[in-house]
Amino acid sequence: MQNKRRHFRVNAEIPIYVYRLQEHAPAASLQRMALSAENRQQIEQANLTLARLFSEPKHVANGAAALFMQFDQQLDFVFWMLERFFNQQNPLEHAEFRERRAQALAPLQYEALRQSKVYPLMQAFNKHVEGLIYFLLLMAQCSHSDRVLYIGNKGGAPFSADSYLHNLNALAEQGNWLSQVLVALVAKLNLYESACRQLKHYGDGVPQPGEWALQQANLSVGGIAIHTPDSYEVSESVVLFLQIESHPQVVEARVVNVLRLEDDDPHGASTPSTVSKDKAPQYRVAFEFEHLGADQLALITRFVTAQELAMAHPPAV
Known about the structure:
By secondary structure, this protein is an alpha+beta fold.
């Protein structure tokens, strides 16, 4: 930001929220909401049941075990992410994260069930699990050090298999293999959904993306400058929440320049004598991005380039 010619910069109107680290105490410890001993026991029981069912030779041979193991592996990724949060770790920083995410979000192969009565159930089940995964991914992206700054909405009733198949529990109790698998999977899903609903009490109060103020900003891959009534100290550290191309982004930044603007010139070119004593002062604050991720760099570069091209080639009237 200090070298103004280092990056292409464009003026754009984007939703922005500035989180000032010095004004916020860390949020409550996530360790306080680790799964209860009872919940862990229930999960362990479901895992033991599934391990037994998936190892039955008949269902290994006919491919049914492998088919339903896909759904269980997705759930295992949800639990893995939850455990990282409970231990006050950001899953994104873990060495296994990328590989685990890729496996969990790989398209599931269950077209063999299309003519089966369980197909609508497994479609809905898959949608619920993916919803949990994206909820936790957004939470991880919106974390800073040991603070969880933003947690999206995770509500709704527990997943119910009865909406798709009746008497599932009764059939499971009678020893039906498929029903036993489905009951165990649904039990794990609802335990994890319950934990995710609790997580929203542990954020630092950052509003929903739809509530971030739409601001005119000067943006580049190196940083961003905005007009604000808030005064900042040079070198102050902040966390910026930006919505670019409908994608919420969380970026660490530091203040590199603060310029008080004059009332009659939004660029701050007037003399101090023109400042009105009746109006709150306005400032142009420049932030330099720090630790920008590769995906964020690509997103901002694409956005800036698109804005540059639009300005260079305006649509014909």
